[in-house]
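Page 37, continued from 36.
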């Protein structure tokens, strides 16, 4: 067999020394637009957010002012088309989530709630008039939204929600309560899901509407650099035009949650990367028994395990992004990604904390902050148990939820 001339005389490709922070060079798979997104968000997050995030975390606050900065960068609703949205690829969106969560999970959550929950619901299920009224201002960060699905007695089983909307003449009147609503006390408009006589519907409720109240949840030990609230609706009256015409049935709400889960799958890779990088730097620079921590076999074992977990999580995120772009991504595949990547990131954070020793529990280092956040992210957008059972149902064909 004769090889083609181009093959016979090709120059051998020189191997590269693996980058400790991207061991399999996964970012080589990104196109020019995706790399530009990476560089832009990383630069902004590193210079404008990272210097302040430990203080925000300690004070349990997230300044609303960052919304317009994020909007100016095109990060709010970036995966949506039209209405001032950037219309970027799933991978570009994932990269942005990764770089934001490398600073803090609360920042990724802020963008995710705005773009993948509130804006996505309006974009996907709203009327042309609703889209035009809300989306351009939300994309610019001038108007903030939240997504009211979870309730005090209805978490993993959203179908058991008690919030109800009844017709009264030409209006809808809503009564009920929502819990653990990110951006809830910052929002200008809430997408509220409620039972009606015709099934589950969604309504756009301006937060200044009489009877609507948001109470910020305090004393949190995770996701402190974020806003979380409980919402109450007491005879909240909205016009018929407030109903999202396409939002009929619980599946429409869950479709928005799938968008947010995708962002988490990418985001936790950033959190894990930061924890690993912090541990690596510390191990190299810290001396014990007359030598660096990095020179001990047990330390190297920990660092190697972290590299493996971080690399696997990055590969999973990239594969799911490519499936999503091809229109082939299934919800159960998102369950696998969310379960695997958050689990891996949590283990990386815990291992990194052990390398830093007592220093690992202070806000002078990012590890414990990420570790606490990831414990919450394990529950957000579907608990570990729910995603486990979703995967189990997919591979066995047997329903184990009920």
């Amino acid at each position: 067999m004769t090889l083609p001339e181009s093959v016979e005389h090709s120059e051998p490709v020189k191997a590269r020394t693996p980058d400790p922070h991207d061991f399999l060079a996964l970012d080589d798979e990104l196109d020019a637009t995706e790399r530009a997104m990476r560089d832009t968000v990383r630069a902004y997050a590193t210079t404008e957010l990272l210097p302040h995030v430990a203080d925000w975390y300690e004070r349990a606050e997230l300044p609303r002012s960052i919304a317009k900065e994020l909007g100016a960068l095109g990060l709010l609703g970036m995966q949506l088309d039209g209405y001032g949205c950037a219309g970027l690829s799933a991978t570009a969106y994932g990269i942005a989530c990764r770089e934001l969560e490398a600073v803090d999970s609360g920042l990724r959550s802020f963008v995710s709630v705005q773009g993948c929950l509130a804006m996505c619901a309006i974009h996907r299920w709203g009327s042309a008039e609703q889209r035009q009224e809300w989306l351009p201002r939300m994309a610019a960060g001038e108007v903030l939204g939240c997504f009211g699905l979870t309730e005090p007695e209805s978490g993993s089983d959203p179908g058991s929600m008690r919030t109800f909307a009844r017709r009264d003449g030409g209006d809808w009147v809503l009564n009920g309560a929502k819990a653990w609503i990110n951006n809830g006390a910052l929002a200008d408009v809430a997408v509220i899901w409620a039972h009606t006589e015709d099934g589950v519907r969604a309504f756009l409720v301006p937060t200044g509407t009489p009877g609507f109240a948001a109470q910020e949840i305090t004393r949190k030990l995770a996701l402190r650099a974020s806003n979380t609230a409980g919402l109450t609706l007491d005879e909240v009256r909205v016009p018929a035009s407030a109903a999202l015409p396409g939002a009929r049935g619980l599946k429409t709400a869950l479709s928005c949650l799938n968008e947010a889960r995708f962002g988490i799958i990418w985001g936790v890779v950033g959190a894990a990367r930061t924890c690993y990088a912090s541990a690596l730097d510390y191990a190299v620079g810290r001396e014990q028994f007359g030598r660096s921590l990095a020179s001990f076999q047990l330390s190297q074992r920990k660092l190697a395990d972290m590299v493996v977990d971080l690399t696997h999580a990055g590969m999973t995120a990239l594969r799911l992004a490519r499936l999503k772009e091809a229109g082939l991504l299934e919800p159960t595949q998102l369950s696998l990604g969310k379960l695997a990547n958050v689990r891996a990131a949590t283990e990386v954070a815990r291992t990194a904390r052990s390398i830093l020793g007592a220093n690992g529990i202070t806000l002078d280092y990012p590890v414990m902050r990420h570790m606490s956040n990831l414990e919450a992210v394990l529950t957000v957008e579907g608990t570990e148990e729910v995603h486990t059972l979703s995967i189990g149902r997919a591979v066995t064909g047997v329903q184990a939820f009920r």
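The two ends are 61 Å apart (CA to CA). Flag for discussion at group meeting. The chain has a mean pLDDT of 95.
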